[in-house]
Design goal:
InterPro entries: Fatty_acid_hydroxylase, Sterol_Desaturase_Related. It contains 12 helices and 2 strands; from the N terminus they run αααααααααββααα. By secondary structure, the chain is mainly α. The protein has one domain.
């Protein structure tokens, strides 16, 4: 399919990449040095979504978030400041993506995975509206818990309870930590996600997120409060591993507003019919449709190693459905 083609590929999908899905994990065996070099260049030497998040983290550290000196004592002022910044980030990023792709229809259905539009008039959703439901959970529990983890971490750093580094003292680790944060996030996400698919937790907690079969930007942070707590606990790594506030802010953006990018429902942003920014992945889109597969993301190999990988083919769908029957005794 050409980059700008918006014609349907099948009855099941409006668009999908070449199938079966390739293995893009940096941990695949045997190691491929050439692939690792290309992966690093694509993610860190070009204007990728990760580089953009790091730049945003640096800017917010300098001009927006409170300093460590300010955060030495809990006070309503600086805590509210962190909450307000996070609220603005989620509204601008999730809202901006929703406006461009679903309201303005900036690239039509080109590179959109699902045929359908966001649901309206269905009592499955609060307010009988998928987008409003997603906004409610994202902007209430989502922003509050993201802020809570960030506030506690800033306070721990400010008072010497969490190790803090500077670029001048540890330049190699400073840069390496930025590269490792998304990898750590992917590792944490896989295991938390597997836990959330235990039948009891799935029914009472995770099913709220999974109402979003046809995902959109506001779906990324639309979760039950218990799931928000488990998901954002990834930020607790800064309590024990030496980092800088810029690392924390990058991690906050990656876990919070970044989820809106990965749930856009489109594979890439097109500019003049060329792919300019990676967004969602068909890998995770398959999880939202078939549930018991692809619990992690493409960067980690766990789904392949533990037999929960769906490669996008009909055979993969049948294997996933059989696994689901075994899990739920149906």
């Amino acid at each position: 399919m050409s980059q700008g083609d918006d014609s349907p590929m099948s009855r099941e999908w409006n668009y999908h990449p070449d199938l079966p899905l390739a293995d893009p994990s940096i941990f695949r065996w045997p190691p491929d040095p050439g692939f690792l070099v290309r992966w690093f260049a694509r993610n860190w030497l070009m204007l990728s979504e990760r580089v953009m998040m790091v730049i945003l983290a640096f800017v917010l550290y300098v001009i927006a978030y409170p300093s460590l000196e300010t955060a030495q004592n809990f006070a309503v002022g600086w805590v509210a400041q962190v909450w307000a910044i996070n609220m603005a980030l989620v509204i601008v990023i999730a809202g901006g993506l929703h406006w461009y792709f679903y309201m303005r229809k900036g690239q039509g259905k080109r590179l959109k995975f699902d045929h359908k539009e966001q649901a309206k008039g269905n009592r499955l959703w609060n307010f009988a509206d998928q987008v409003r439901d997603n906004m409610f959970w994202s902007l209430t529990s989502g922003v509050a818990q993201l802020t809570g983890f960030q506030v506690v971490t800033i306070w721990l750093m400010a008072n010497g309870y969490a190790p803090v580094i500077t670029f001048a003292e540890h330049p190699i680790w400073f840069i390496l930590a930025l590269i490792l944060i998304p990898i750590w996030s992917a590792f944490h996400f896989y295991w938390v996600h597997r836990l959330l698919h235990v039948p009891l937790l799935y029914r009472r907690v995770h099913s709220l997120h999974h109402r979003n079969v046809n995902i959109g930007p506001w779906s990324g942070m639309s979760m039950h409060p218990v799931e928000h707590f488990l998901y954002f606990s990834s930020l607790a790594i800064h309590w024990i591993v030496a980092s800088h506030p810029i690392h924390l802010i990058f991690h906050v953006i990656y876990e919070g507003p970044g989820a809106s990018m990965t749930h856009t429902g489109y594979e890439d942003l097109l500019v003049k019919d060329k792919r300019r920014l990676a967004l969602g992945t068909f890998y995770h889109q398959l999880h939202h449709r078939y549930y018991e597969c692809n619990y992690g993301n493409q960067e980690m190999p766990w789904d392949r190693w533990f037999g929960t990988f769906h490669d996008g083919t009909e055979a993969g769908t049948q294997e996933t459905r059989a696994r689901k029957k075994r899990m739920y005794g149906q």
